[in-house]
């Protein structure tokens, strides 16, 4: 403790302490021997007890003891330091070093072990951060986002010359070491010292795999020790072939290529199996510095590096001298190819999937990436759907004046989307007409009107007059303004797509029940309670409309449509599994009756163009001025919806029969994978059924029919309801500008008019008693026939010469 002071200071301090102690001791003795006499007018002090006297003596002797101890310690320390000073400091330094080293090693080991994963199984399922892979139902890759390895190979798919090239270049003792090659590290140190720069690395292939999978590219001692420890664990759990396979699939080889399969395509436009020895050596030489040895960016450096790898292979006995010389003498031929991971299949569908992802995973998971999205898409059906849409627009779009088309196919039993095409050219316009476009469904919405009526207990044979009908000022019109004036059953009305009957049924059932049933079946868009609702005035999109028809195909059970079946994180763990609950929207009997009614549409109504040789149910639809052409149909295992039209809502010259023909083209291909299955049988009782819902009839302020009347040659009145009727075509008045009056135009020769689904059905008049007349000469045909040819040879008719606005 006195080492800090010089000798003079030590001496002065000792003298001061000794003098202070002597002075205190003398004062205490003087007080004890001659006590001071008592002062006048003061209290006499008591004599201190023996205990207090003893305590005071001890307190006064403490400085003396300290001074004595300091002098003795000084003498002792000088003697010890004089005889044992070198040995003392050596032993103390050694102990401190050993203790500090042990503490440092323990702390380092704890730091390394605490930063390592519990298992190294992730190397089998590893995907890089910031990546998203979207797969079809059969595992086909639809889209890859971020630094993804597109093509992953098994070890038996990799040629032996490729594996040997990478082993010779990166880890010559790969088969001998247990994860860390200490001889290789020493050899690399010597080589780098001789070269004066880093020319060879000491990391093994196993260490590189550990760094790719678990670590980053930081260069520090801690990361190196972690890498070595992980390599040992990987070698303990996996064999050499598994390690080499994963390494060759994950190693980065420049130009955006991850793995040898991607690199072979990028640099040589060929698969790995077709690589030559020189090309394999070129890829192996890229690993140390992809930006330096890329044959695309620096051919000269790449060739020199290739030759080094070939010489290493020869020195290690992996190839002969003749093979090495021939490969070295060969020119470096590069044929650049486009990265396959940049290719995109089913773009409208994959874009829809990306927009759905935030509903099922958190933003943090999406940002971290490395996820794999397994979808429900059928790749073969998707390709055929794209070809069908392209063919339809190319063949019919020009003369029917529509530029866009969309199609979607759904499995009604589980809601899985099997095909989706949202337009004709995703590169020019990414707008998805399946999910984003809301259009008027036209007559396809009548299905929900009749479904509600059946659920309310109406018989499909219940009849309504087919005549001009006005309700609260709203006047629906049949297509072509044609009315038979007869009583028509609901089944025939939906088959012929009669507008007035659909509106009349809506009045009998009510707005609210129809809207509720449509929403339960799958319509999510807002529906407005108007009389025109029966004719599809409220806008919907194709996906929800098709899904709602799927409820009928699934016997009244609603299955929400979806495209994502599972989502896996970067470690292969399932973080989302589709599990949508089915819900009964309508009773099975109602679904069976409506399906039977819709089968009549395809068998002999407006949808005959959709016949495919098996039982089909569906409905055509055309909005005002044919702006939208629809057909939605189904078999028990698949429901498909088709839309044709223009993005600017411009009127077309098309017909819904074109949409039905497009549906048929797709379903003929898809049905090859689906066994034929019958629809459910009709319930035993159709008439007088008890409804499962309650109708809420509308009470119009004013409604009336305007029946067609005519007389036959015998003077009998025909055309009234319940009597024989004749078809009537309402002609509008034409204004004569010269007289400012309205006159009726001359009656022209009858020509078949297009119905909303593409065909007009002329109702033949009932036979009347009159004399036979000579048959008039057949008029010269000017348009396509009114009755379509058989479904197998059906082509949509040509556009008419004129049309009604």
UniProtKB/TrEMBL annotation:
Residues 20-57, 709-805 are annotated as: Disordered. Residues 406-658 form the Penicillin-binding protein transpeptidase domain. Residues 20-32 have a biased composition (Basic and acidic residues). The chain crosses the membrane at residues 88-112. GO terms for molecular function: penicillin binding; peptidoglycan glycosyltransferase activity; serine-type D-Ala-D-Ala carboxypeptidase activity. Residues 757-772 have a biased composition (Low complexity). In the C-terminal section; belongs to the transpeptidase family. It catalyses: [GlcNAc-(1->4)-Mur2Ac(oyl-L-Ala-gamma-D-Glu-L-Lys-D-Ala-D-Ala)](n)-di-trans,octa-cis-undecaprenyl diphosphate + beta-D-GlcNAc-(1->4)-Mur2Ac(oyl-L-Ala-gamma-D-Glu-L-Lys-D-Ala-D-Ala)-di-trans,octa-cis-undecaprenyl diphosphate = [GlcNAc-(1->4)-Mur2Ac(oyl-L-Ala-gamma-D-Glu-L-Lys-D-Ala-D-Ala)](n+1)-di-trans,octa-cis-undecaprenyl diphosphate + di-trans,octa-cis-undecaprenyl diphosphate + H(+); Preferential cleavage: (Ac)2-L-Lys-D-Ala-|-D-Ala. Also transpeptidation of peptidyl-alanyl moieties that are N-acyl substituents of D-alanine. One of its GO terms (biological process) is regulation of cell shape. One of its GO terms (cellular component) is outer membrane-bounded periplasmic space. Residues 139-314 form the Glycosyl transferase family domain. This is Penicillin-binding protein. InterPro entries: Beta-lactam/transpept-like (IPR012338), Glyco_trans_51 (IPR001264), Glycosyltr_51/Transpeptidase (IPR050396), Lysozyme-like_dom_sf (IPR023346), PBP_transglycosylase (IPR036950), PCN-bd_Tpept (IPR001460). Keywords: Carboxypeptidase, Cell shape, Cell wall biogenesis/degradation, Glycosyltransferase, Hydrolase, Membrane, Multifunctional enzyme, Peptidoglycan synthesis, Protease, Transferase, Transmembrane, Transmembrane helix. Residues 786-805 have a biased composition (Pro residues). Residues 42-57 have a biased composition (Basic residues). It comes from the Bacteria. It comes from Hydrococcus rivularis NIES-593.
